[in-house]
Amino acid sequence: MNSFFNSSIFNPDRVIGFIVFLIASWGSVNALIHELTIQYWLPILLLFVFSIILIRGLELKNLNLPLGTSVTFFRGIDRPQKVLRPEEVVVRKAFSENKRIPGLDASPLHLLNEGFNFKTLPTADPLTPMYVLDSKFRILDWNQALSLAFDQTMEGNRWKSVLEWTYFLDNYKEVIEHGIKVFGDKENLPSIDIENITYTSKRYARLNGIKRAYRIPKDPSLNEADNTSQTRGWLITIELMFDDPHKKNHYFMDLVHLLKESLVWSEYSLSYDQILMNTKVYPNLLYSILGENNEPVELISSSAKVLDMGAGTGNLTSLLASEKGSNRLIVSIDNNEMMLNILREKCKAHLRKDSLGPGIIPVKQDITSLFGLNDNFFDYVLSNNVIYSLEEKSVVDCLSEVKRVLKPGGEIRITGPRKDANLKKLFRAIRNDLEKSGKFEDLRESFEHVQNINNEYLDLLLRRYSKDHLIELLISAGFDAPYFVNERVYEGQGILICCKKSI
């Protein structure tokens, strides 16, 4: 009902205009009222209501949605990932051979063996494409604006030399020569460098950009081990210019939608994190994944290597790390920075202390690309209430990567909502738990907020995959048939599927 009255039919301007019209024409309206009896008013009223419903239906039809569908900003955006043909790669890399490229003498960063991590980045406009390099010009991070404009060409290149991304640019030769000239002298690095780049986007056509590289100096108070450089890294921003003004508008509309989606997940995390662990309902789901609920699911050994895929705010990660006697290595991946920051704070006592020991390694990364993680490395991959948020192609990519990083005989455990999930029943159980513990009134606002987000934004996503569909996707990815399936977890509204990778 809220989405109906929030539609354009009932926007404030139209309502005010209608009231003004009634006041201005009250004399005529009053006379008409005296002329008409109730037998005429009832059909007129019904006709008015039917007209509103019909117009609303036409609006939904124009959006290619069935009547009654909630309109949200989770519209699908085609985000093609650009790749270079093998022959192009050979030609472009040949150009840089035997050239003194800054940073190429650096050894590769290893995700699990180095503690190098920017916990705080300089502020940047989220509408401006940006990325961050370390002092050796290796790619550390980038924002959604850059990923969207440049066809996700950064994906798969994290922790590699920025040269790997440079090859995608139309003017890569000029950019490489400029880099050698400006950044080749380590003793005289500029505070800021400006150059022009060009790129042909698959979605937004030709782009011209002014690239500004800002040097991030070292903080003396950090006592960093590497004393060979006074530079901690580089923050690069790109001011985009579009050949086609329509493409520019298209780009910013797409970007705003992506940012809104990211903000909803961030907002969601702030509320649900306060609620779920104050009940028995959610921890029971986590214990089921860990094999601790008297179900025929193997307990995760205390020395296992575990990938928490889509770790969110770290509730599952925290349980894995805090268990008495735990000697596990846990890699917790999520692409939402706010959720990862909550995870870091929640699990700070268990973060990995060195490159050899156990502990938690939080990683900001898309789960469809597990770049930087070695083949046949993990004993377990856990994915709690994540898969439902992905389109089917992304699920296929994700499961393919999971199979790659799992050891032979390793196991994937997936939870997600049933296709016929009853959210009202789930929230009723959560509320009952909170009321019994006397915590509901303190958490009422957060509870209602989570409930509203589920109803308004996530309801359609929650019903994306059935149990049989998920099993089909797992088997297609090369996993054995599930050795265990429970369709009654999470107060009967969720599914737990456990599969192994063939030995």
UniProtKB/TrEMBL annotation:
Domain annotation Methyltransferase: ranges: 301-445
Domain of life (superkingdom): Bacteria
Protein name: Class I SAM-dependent methyltransferase
Entry's Gene Ontology molecular function annotations: methyltransferase activity
A Pfam family matched in the record: Methyltransf_31
Species name: Candidatus Nitronauta litoralis
UniProt KW keywords: Membrane, Methyltransferase, Transferase, Transmembrane, Transmembrane helix
Keyword tRNA processing applies: no
InterPro entries, per database record: Methyltranfer_dom, SAM-dependent_MTases_sf
Membrane spanning stretches: 15-33, 40-58
Signal peptide: none
GO biological process entries: methylation
